[in-house]
Amino acid sequence: MYNKNRNHKDSFRGGNRNFRNNNHFRSRGGARARFRAKNFDPTNMINNLNSMPQEEVVVKEFIAKNKFSDFKLDRRLETNIINKNYINPTPIQDAAIPELLRGHDLVGIAKTGSGKTAAFLIPLINKVLRNPDQKVLILAPTRELAVQIRDELREFTYNTNLQSVLCIGGVSMHGQIKILRRNPQFVIGTPGRLKDLEDQHQINFNNYRNIVLDEVDHMLDMGFIQDVDYIINKLPYARQSLFFSATITDGVERVMKKFLKNPVTIKIESNAPTANVSQQIVKTNGKSKIEVLHELLISPGFEKVLIFGRTKFGVEKLSRELIDRGFKAASIHGNKSQNQRQRALSEFKDGYVKILLATDVASRGLDIPDVTHVINYELPESYEDYIHRIGRTGRADKKGTALTFVN
Ligand code: ADP
Ligand code: MG
Q1: Residue 256 three-state SS
Q2: What is the pTM of this model?
Q3: How many whole angstroms separate alpha carbon 168 and alpha carbon 334?
Q4: In this structure, which residue's CA is closest to atom 9 in ligand 1?
């Protein structure tokens, strides 16, 4: 069994290498004509996956060492965990929570959708409930992700007097400053806005003895490195630092070294990066792409569909075409205001629209329950982006399907 899994992984990597530099997009004028974007074609990888006997793709059932009740958490927190219907800790939670409760620095590496948010929120909330002088700073790469962390924090701190503030760009600073003056225990934000608030002397990073960097790989992709560096340098020396990422790249490692003291590293390996996702290739066979997409979208089972495009313009255009064809669709990309992005996301989450179109950047880390299908209408740029995209479905043990258009 062990060997079979190794083989599976190897062929998987091989596919990645062979296809990384293929360029399936032909420039057709416009923005794309000016540069050749690199892209990742998963065909080979998917063929390898699908030729595997089914049993090899299925991840072994995980049995948690701990129950949430073993962590001896504050009663109120324990009740809130039960109310969220979390029965057993996920692997990263099972391994990380005890270490964090002991006060260690920690590196948590686990695939997307594996429950990293609760892995850091639960022990930190417990710490602050026990010791209200403690303050926590959480850095996230995107506004949406910061909102999501804050929402989850609110659920976990229900019925406690813990306060939090969301410090993200795209909205006025005024409200954020007002709440910061009330000295909330939790500050969740994006690096750029936090730094702006510091420039205006509205926040003093030296007061935060607990710090979380979430989705560090994307923080670096998005060019936040300088702001992150700046913030880290202003933190007090005596602190507990937590670091979460889905992948470790050289850049991630560099930040890690600067940031952590004798960290415990927890890496959750998975046989397949996305064991709950069935991956398929879509060929147009001479038909127009939009027709093929249309056919798919009216097929049974396409209940909650996330469609990825490459550029904000492409995503906007496709979104308009689908709406013209009578579909209810919303989109998130960099040309939308924060309010529009948040509204599109809620409409999709609540089922008011069944199609959400997105660019890679706008979708970092999003946790949307019950996405039935991810459609890569345009190829992702890299293997990491591919994994990230398809990880938006098949979350928390649900099954999902990822369809990738090639040529
Ligand atoms: P990650 O940050 O690793 O991408 P998230 O923290 O966003 O993952 O969690 C993914 C999904 O799994 C969320 O919907 C979350 O509510 C759910 N989840 C997390 N922990 C548990 C648990 N112990 N039991 C059940 N569901 C969980
Ligand atoms: Mg996350």
Answers
A1: helix
A2: 0.66
A3: 15
A4: 115
Q: Are 208 and 236 in contact (CB under 8 A)?
A: yes
Q: Ligand 2 centre and the CA of 30: distance in Å?
A: 35
H-helix or E-strand spanning residue 343: helix 338-349
pLDDT in tens, 228-278: 999 999 999 999 999 998 888 888 888 888 888 889 999 887 645 566 888
The CB density around residue 27, as the number of other CB atoms within 10 Å, is: 13
Residue 387 · residue 357 · CB < 8 Å: no
| Residue ranges around ligand 1 (CB below 6 Å) | 86, 89-90, 93, 110, 112-118, 367, 369, 395-396
Report the atom number in ligand 1 closest to the C-alpha of 396: 12
Instruction: Tokens 């506004």: give the residue.
Output: 143
Tell me the residue type at 159: N
Calculate how far, in angstroms, residue 77's C-alpha sits from the geometric centre of ligand 1: 16
Sole residue written with tokens 């022990």 = 123
Burial class for 275, CB neighbours closer than 10 Å (0-12, 13-18, 19+): middle
Segment 321-365, tens digit of pLDDT:
999 999 999 999 888 888 888 899 999 999 999 999 999 876 776
Sequence-ordered strand ranges (E) for 129-248: 136-139, 164-167, 186-189, 210-213, 240-245
Strand, helix or coil for residue 139: strand
Q: Which residues surround ligand 2, an ion (CB under 5 A)?
A: 116, 365
Burial of 179 (C-beta count, 10 Å sphere; 0-12/13-18/19+): middle
How far are the Cα atoms of 49, 57, 114, 207, 394 from residue 276, in angstroms, in the given order? 12, 9, 12, 42, 5
Farthest-apart Cα atoms in the chain, separation:
65
Per-residue model confidence as pLDDT tens digits over 94-152: 999 999 999 999 999 988 778 999 999 999 999 999 998 999 999 999 999 999 999 99
